[in-house]
């Protein structure tokens, strides 16, 4: 359910994860990201019709820098141009229902193309991408009695909520940290700027797929 390009515009690393392996992986990942108390506005539920790109980018930056800080790595700074590159990529992946660094979009086939089109300067650059769920379905058993989008957790019977921007960002950063290729990009001191974006497909399995991208440059 994720792929990564951790590169100096030359080396590409990619991984494809199925739903069951991801469920197993996330079940044991409590505490995989460092604890952070997000601002209240990041606790708002992700909108399937008009996701707030700025909130998601802020949340991803929060948890990415928490992971870097815990390891003595200088923090990334938010770059609006990279956030635009990431949100464009996430939106295109969602429109095509394809998780890939290469898309059949004129002028935006590769990450290099996308940076060039936006006039973004870089010496080194990399991109992480991932596919997640709109509802908080990963990492917990889901009741087989759930109907429609009224999911309940199998262990407690509590209703499954839609992700907040904070919980979605925390989950995807934990997943990236658990994958060597993604982790290398996220923790590399060579990258100093970052942006993130998302695209939501409400027709995806489990009542909604979320395509996410994180763009780095240094």
Automatic annotation (TrEMBL):
InterPro entries: CAP_dom, CAP_sf. It holds the Pfam family CAP. It comes from Amaricoccus solimangrovi. Gene3D superfamilies: CAP. This is CAP domain-containing protein. Signal peptide: none annotated. It comes from the Bacteria. CDD domains: CAP_bacterial. Residues 65-206 form the SCP domain.
